[in-house]
C-alpha cells in the first residue's frame, strides 16, 4: 500500500472533511492561483478576484472516463459582490489571519468548505455529502467555482421555511413542552430562535423515527444554561446521524446561533426522512407490484426512497393513461398534468368541476390540484406557485404525503417467487443498518440506501477506504458508476480486497465477485473490519494515553472497569463484553456517570431487573452517550441481547470521547464547539470472542 502524494493539513476538521482525491485536486487549484498572482504570493484580500478568475478543471477520473478524450466545459467565474465575498471571508478567517497576509492552503480549503456549505443549504440540504469533489468527467474539480452566484449565498427559501413550519405546527402542536410556543408564525424568523435550545429539533427527530431519542435525556427546563443547550445540540446532531441525516458541516455552535441556512437544511432532512419512512419494501411490501421479475426487484431494492416514489408515481400514471414519464419533482410536474392524472387514479371520488385539465392557466390548475388533495385529507406542503415554479423539495414532500394517505397498491401481496428471502433476520438487519449509517456519516459523495445492493459495484467501498485510509486507493484503476459491464465491477471489488489485504484484514475465501453477487455474510464481515480499522487509526492518534503500546479490547475492558471503580462503584463490574449482566444497563450508566458525572440523571434510572426496566435503561444509555458526544449506531435491542460487538463498540466510543476531550473543558460548553464525533467500532476480537475468520469462510 503506497501513500505517495498524501496531502496532510493541520486542521483535523479539514482532514476529515475532504478525501485525498479532493485535497489533491484542490491543492492543484491553489497552486494555479498562487502562480497567477504577482510575485507568486496570494494574499487573503486577493482571494475573491483570484478564485473568480479560475475556470472549471477536470475532476479525478476513473479508467472509463480517461478513455474519453472530451474535456469538461470551462465554468464561469463567481462574480460575487464585495459585500458577499466579505461575508464569506469573515465566516472562515481566524483572528490571526489578516487581509494583507498570505492566504494559506488551509484558508483556501476553509473558503471552499464554506462555499460548499452554502451551496448545499441553498439547494435544500438534501441527503448525501455536501462537500467533496464530484468525480465526473463533466464536473468541475471545485464545484463552487462553476455554480450560479445566487446559490452560493446564505439564502433560504421562504416557501420551504413556511412549509416546514406548517409541518412542525401540525405534528408537534400537542407536545407538552412545545405547545405553549406553537404555532410558529412562518412569516417571521421565529423558527430559528425557537430551535436555539435544541428541544424542538430533538422532538422533530423522534417524530421522524420514533424512539430514536429517549426524551428523558433532553434538557427541557424553561431556561437552559449554555452547557445544557450544548448537550441538547450534541444529542440532536448525533441522533440525526443515527437516522440517516448528513451533518458533516453542522456544529453545535451553528444550532446555538440559529444559523438559518443550516437549521433549515437540517429540518428539511429530518422531515424528508419522516415523509419517506414508508417508501420501502419492508414498510410497504405492496410495492412489489412495481416489479415483474427478480432483476427488477434487485433494482428496486437499490433505489433511494425518492426514486422508488417516482417509480410508484409512474406506475399509477400508467393506469390513468398518462403518456409521459416523470423523472423529477421539478420540471416534469410544473404543468400539473401529472398531478391531475395521479389524483384522479387514486381518488376519483374527490374530483370536482371544473377539472384541473380543463383549465389552461397553470396557477389556477395547480390550485385545483391542491383542492383535490385537500378533499383526500392530504396536508399542503406547497402553494400553487410552488408547483408552477417546480420547487423539488416541496413537490417531493407533497407526493410523499399523497403516498402515505393513499398509495393505490393492492392489499393482497403479489405472490411471486423472487420475493422469497427478501426479509433478513433481525441480527442481519441491525448490522446492515449500523454499517449503512456509519458509511453515510463519513461524508463520502455517495449516499447509500441498502448496503447489500449499493456496495456491489465496489465504488462506494473504494470511497470509504479512501476516507479512512487516505492515499490507499488507485483511482486511475477504478471504474466509476454507472458500470454496465460486470467485469468492471469485479475490478473495483478486487482492488477493494487488495487494499484490505494490505491493511491486514482477514480475507479467507472471499473474492471480488462475492461482493458483486451481494453475498451478505461476506459483505458484513468486510465492513466490520473496515470499521475496526477506522477506530484503530483514531485510537493510535491518542496513543500517548497508553504509553505508546497498541490499545486492545482488553485494555478497553480494563479501562472501563477502572473508571467505574474509581468513581466509587466498587460492585459494578463487567467480566467481558458478553457479560449477560450488561443487559440491565447499570454498568454503562455507571461508566457514563464516571466520565461525566453531570450527564446521568439517576432519578430516571431503573433497577434493570424486569424486561421493561431493562428496555428503559437501554434506551436512556444510548441517548445519554449521544448527548455526551458519542457517535453510535446501535439499538436498545443490542444492549438487551448483549451483542458483544456492539458492547465493545459502545464502550470504545465512550473511551474515545473521554480520552480526546479537552481536560479543562469537559463538554466545551462555554465556547459551544462543534460536535466532533467519530463512529466507533470494535478494536480487537479476542475479548468479544468473535472471529472474523469464522465470518469469512463458507
From TrEMBL:
Single annotated GO MF: actin filament binding
Entry keyword annotation includes Lipid metabolism: no
Biased composition (Polar residues): 670-698
Residue ranges of the region described as Disordered: 58-79, 666-698
Keywords: Actin-binding, Cytoplasm, Cytoskeleton, Repeat
Subcellular location: Cytoplasm, Cytoskeleton
One Gene Ontology cellular component: actin filament bundle
InterPro entries noted in UniProt: Actinin_actin-bd_CS, CH_dom, CH_dom_sf, Fimbrin/Plastin
SMART domains noted in UniProt: CH
Positions of the Calponin-homology (CH) domain: 158-275, 303-407, 429-535, 550-659
Pfam families assigned to the protein according to its UniProt record, in alphabetical order: CH
PANTHER family: FI19014P1 (PTHR19961:SF18), FIMBRIN/PLASTIN (PTHR19961)
Assembly: Interacts with F-actin.
Name of the protein in question: Calponin-homology (CH) domain-containing protein
Amino acid at each position: 500500500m503506497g501513500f505517495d502524494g498524501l496531502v496532510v493539513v493541520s486542521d483535523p476538521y479539514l482532514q476529515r472533511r475532504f478525501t485525498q482525491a479532493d485535497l489533491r485536486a484542490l491543492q492543484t487549484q491553489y497552486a494555479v492561483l498562487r502562480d497567477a498572482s504577482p510575485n507568486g504570493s496570494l494574499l487573503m484580500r486577493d482571494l475573491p478576484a483570484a478564485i473568480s478568475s479560475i475556470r472549471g478543471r477536470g475532476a479525478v477520473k476513473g479508467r472509463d472516463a480517461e478513455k474519453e478524450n472530451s474535456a469538461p466545459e470551462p465554468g464561469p467565474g463567481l462574480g460575487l459582490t464585495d459585500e458577499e465575498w466579505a461575508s464569506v471571508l469573515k465566516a472562515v478567517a481566524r483572528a490571526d489571519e489578516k487581509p494583507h497576509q498570505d492566504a494559506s492552503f488551509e484558508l483556501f480549503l476553509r473558503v471552499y468548505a464554506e462555499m460548499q456549505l452554502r451551496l448545499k443549504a441553498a439547494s435544500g440540504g438534501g441527503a448525501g455529502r455536501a462537500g467533496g469533489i464530484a468525480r465526473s468527467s463533466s464536473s468541475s474539480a471545485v464545484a463552487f467555482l462553476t455554480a450560479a452566484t445566487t446559490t452560493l449565498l446564505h439564502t433560504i427559501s421562504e416557501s420551504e421555511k413556511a412549509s416546514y413550519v406548517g409541518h412542525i405546527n401540525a405534528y408537534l402542536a400537542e407536545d407538552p413542552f412545545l405547545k405553549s410556543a406553537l404555532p410558529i408564525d412562518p412569516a417571521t424568523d421565529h423558527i430559528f430562535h425557537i430551535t436555539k435550545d435544541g428541544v424542538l429539533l430533538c422532538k422533530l427527530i423522534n417524530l421522524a423515527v420514533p424512539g430514536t431519542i429517549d426524551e428523558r435525556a433532553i434538557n427541557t427546563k424553561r431556561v437552559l444554561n449554555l452547557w445544557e443547550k450544548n448537550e441538547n445540540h450534541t444529542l440532536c446532531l448525533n441522533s440525526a446521524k443515527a437516522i440517516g441525516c448528513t451533518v458533516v458541516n453542522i456544529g453545535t455552535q451553528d444550532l446555538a446561533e440559529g444559523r438559518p441556512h443550516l437549521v433549515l437544511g437540517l429540518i428539511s432532512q429530518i422531515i424528508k426522512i419522516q415523509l419517506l419512512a414508508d417508501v420501502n419494501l419492508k414498510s410497504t411490501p405492496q410495492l412489489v407490484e412495481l416489479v415483474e421479475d427478480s432483476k427488477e426487484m434487485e433494482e428496486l431494492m437499490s433505489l433511494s426512497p425518492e426514486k422508488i416514489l417516482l417509480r410508484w408515481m409512474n406506475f399509477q400514471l400508467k393506469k390513468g393513461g398518462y403518456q409521459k414519464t416523470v423523472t423529477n419533482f421539478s420540471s416534469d410536474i410544473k404543468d400539473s398534468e401529472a398531478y391531475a392524472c395521479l389524483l384522479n387514479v387514486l381518488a376519483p371520488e374527490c374530483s370536482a368541476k371544473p377539472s384541473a385539465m380543463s383549465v389552461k392557466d397553470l396557477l389556477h390548475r395547480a390550485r385545483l390540484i391542491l383542492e383535490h388533495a385537500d378533499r383526500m385529507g392530504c396536508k399542503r406542503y406547497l402553494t400553487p406557485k410552488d408547483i408552477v415554479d417546480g420547487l423539488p423539495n416541496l413537490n417531493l414532500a407533497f407526493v410523499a404525503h399523497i403516498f402515505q394517505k393513499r398509495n393505490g397498491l393492492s392489499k393482497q401481496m403479489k405472490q411471486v417467487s423472487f420475493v422469497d428471502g427478501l426479509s433478513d433476520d433481525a441480527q442481519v438487519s441491525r448490522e446492515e443498518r449500523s454499517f449503512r449509517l456509519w458509511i453515510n456519516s463519513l461524508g463520502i459523495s455517495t449516499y447509500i440506501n441498502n448496503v447489500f445492493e449499493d456496495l456491489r459495484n465496489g465504488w462506494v467501498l473504494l470511497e470509504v477506504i479512501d476516507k479512512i485510509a487516505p492515499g490507499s486507493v488507485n483511482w486511475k484503476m477504478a471504474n466509476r458508476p454507472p458500470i454496465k459491464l460486470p467485469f468492471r465491477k469485479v475490478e473495483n471489488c478486487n482492488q477493494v480486497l487488495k487494499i484490505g489485504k494490505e491493511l491486514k484484514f482477514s480475507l479467507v475465501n472471499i473474492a471480488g465477485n462475492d461482493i458483486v453477487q451481494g453475498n451478505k455474510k461476506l459483505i458484513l464481515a468486510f465492513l466490520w473490519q473496515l470499521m475496526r480499522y477506522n477506530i484503530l487509526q483514531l485510537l493510535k492518534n491518542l496513543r500517548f494515553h497508553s504509553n505508546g503500546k497498541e490499545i486492545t479490547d482488553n485494555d478497553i475492558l480494563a479501562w472501563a472497569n477502572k473508571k467505574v471503580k474509581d468513581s466509587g462503584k466498587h460492585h459494578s463490574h463487567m467480566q467481558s463484553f458478553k457479560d449477560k449482566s450488561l443487559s440491565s444497563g447499570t454498568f454503562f450508566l455507571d461508566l457514563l456517570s464516571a466520565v461525566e458525572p453531570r450527564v446521568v440523571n439517576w432519578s430516571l434510572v431503573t433497577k434493570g431487573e424486569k424486561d421493561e426496566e431493562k428496555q428503559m435503561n437501554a434506551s436512556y444509555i444510548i441517548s445519554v452517550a449521544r448527548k455526551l458526544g458519542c457517535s453510535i449506531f446501535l439499538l436498545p435491542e443490542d444492549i438487551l441481547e448483549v451483542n458483544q460487538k456492539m458492547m465493545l463498540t459502545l464502550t470504545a466510543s465512550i473511551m474515545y470521547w473521554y480520552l480526546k476531550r479537552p481536560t479543562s473543558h469537559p463538554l466545551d460548553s462555554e465556547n459551544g464547539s462543534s460536535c466532533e464525533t467519530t463512529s466507533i467500532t470494535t478494536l480487537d476480537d479476542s475479548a468479544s470472542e468473535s472471529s472474523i475468520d469464522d465470518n469469512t469462510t463458507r
